[in-house]
Specification:
Blueprint (H helix, E strand, L loop, with lengths): L1 E7 L3 E8 L4 E8 L4 H15 L4 E8 L2 E3 L4 E4 L10 H9 L3 E5 H12 L8 E6 L3 E7 L2 E2 L30 H4 L1 H10 L8 H9 L3 H25 L3 E5 L3 H7 L14 E3 L6 H11 L1 H4 L2
Parallel strand pairs: 1-4, 4-7, 8-11, 11-12
Antiparallel strand pairs: 1-2, 2-3, 5-6, 8-9, 9-10
Helix pairs in contact: 1-2, 3-9, 6-7
C-alpha cells in the first residue's frame, strides 16, 4: 500500500508517493509564491502525476491553522489556502480520501515513526523555514486543543517586536524564521544570499557582526523553546524544516538559561521530506490521527 503526501510550505510545495515503510518512491516540486489558486492547481497536477492504483489516500499538510476534523484551512500566514476549496477539489480530482492537518503535525508524525523522535511519546517539534510551525505529541497523541493547538511559532518573545502575520507583535516567527533571518542580514548590510552556515562559522571565529546576527536570531528561539519545555515537559524537542539543522547549530550561542526547564534539542532526521512522509503515513493510518 502507498499513499501520497503533500507538504505545502510558505515558499515551496512538495508531493510524494510513499510506501508503508516511509520510503519515497517519487516526488514532484513546485513554487507557491503566496498564490493560493496557483498552489491548488499545482497540488492537483502533481497528485494526478503521482497517483496509482496502489495509492490508498492523500495526506495534506498546511502551514497555518487547520481544523482537521472538518478538513478546513482556517488561516494561513505567507500562503493562505483558506480562500480555496482545497480538500474538496483534491478529493474530487483524485477520487481518493484526503486527510488534512498542519504541516508541522505531519512532520512530527514522520519523525516519531521513522526519525529523530522514535521511541518517545512526548515530543515537541518546531519547523523552521519561511515561517515557524509547531506541533506536540503528548502521551502518543497529537496535541490539538479545540482545533489547532501547537502553534508554537506564535509564542511571544518580544512584546515590542515586529508585527506578525497573526496580528500580534513579537512572535518567535518574527525573530527566528528564515524570513526574520533575511531581515537581520539586510539590516546588517550583508548580501541577501548570505548563508546562515557561513554566519555561524564566522561568529564562532570571532566575527562581531556575524555574532550579532546569530544572537538576534537564536536567542529568541531559545526563549521560546524554554517556555514550551516548561509548559509541556517533553522528552525531546525536534527542530525541522529547511533551517532546522542550522537553528540547532546557532543555539550553541544561546544555551538554555534554567536548569529547571530543559530537554534535549535535536535536528530532525528526515530533513525536508518529513512533511510528505508524515502526510502519507496519516493517509494510511487515518484512525491514528483523527481528532
Amino acid at each position: 500500500m502507498d499513499a501520497l503526501g503533500v507538504d505545502v510550505g510558505g515558499t515551496n510545495l512538495r508531493v510524494a508517493r510513499v510506501n508503508a515503510g516511509g520510503e519515497i518512491a517519487a516526488t514532484r516540486y513546485a513554487r507557491t509564491n503566496g498564490d493560493a489558486q496557483a498552489a491548488l492547481a499545482s497540488i492537483i497536477a502533481d497528485v494526478r502525476a503521482l497517483d496509482s492504483a496502489s495509492v490508498a489516500g492523500i495526506g495534506i499538510g498546511i502551514p497555518g491553522r487547520v481544523d482537521p476534523l472538518a478538513r478546513k484551512v482556517l488561516s494561513g500566514g505567507f500562503l493562505d489556502l483558506s480562500t480555496v476549496p482545497l480538500v474538496e477539489a483534491v478529493e474530487r480530482e483524485a477520487g481518493k480520501p484526503v486527510v488534512l492537518d498542519s504541516d508541522a503535525n505531519l512532520a512530527l508524525l514522520a519523525e516519531w515513526r521513522y526519525g529523530a523522535a522514535r521511541g518517545a511519546n512526548n515530543v515537541v517539534m518546531l519547523t523552521i523555514g519561511t515561517g515557524i510551525g509547531g506541533a506536540a505529541l503528548l502521551g502518543g497523541r497529537l496535541l490539538r486543543g479545540r482545533m489547532s493547538g501547537g502553534q508554537f511559532g506564535h509564542v511571544t518573545v518580544d512584546v515590542q517586536g515586529r508585527l506578525c502575520a497573526c496580528g500580534r507583535y513579537g512572535c518567535v516567527e518574527t525573530t527566528s524564521s528564515g524570513t526574520a533571518l533575511g531581515h537581520f542580514i539586510a539590516e546588517a548590510g550583508l548580501p541577501a544570499e548570505t548563508r546562515i552556515e557561513a554566519l555561524i562559522a564566522q561568529a564562532e571565529a570571532g566575527d562581531v557582526r556575524a555574532a550579532a546576527i546569530i544572537d538576534l536570531w537564536a536567542k529568541p528561539l531559545r526563549a521560546a523553546i524554554d517556555t514550551i519545555v516548561a509548559s509541556l515537559d517533553p522528552e525531546v524537542v525536534v527542530l525541522g524544516g529547511g533551517l532546522g539543522a542550522a537553528a540547532l547549530a546557532a543555539l550553541r550561542a544561546a544555551p538554555a538559561l534554567s536548569p529547571w526547564y530543559q530537554a534535549p534539542v535535536v535536528a530532525a532526521e528526515l530533513g525536508d521530506t518529513a512533511g510528505v512522509i508524515g502526510g502519507a503515513w496519516a493517509a494510511m493510518n487515518p484512525e491514528a490521527v483523527r481528532p
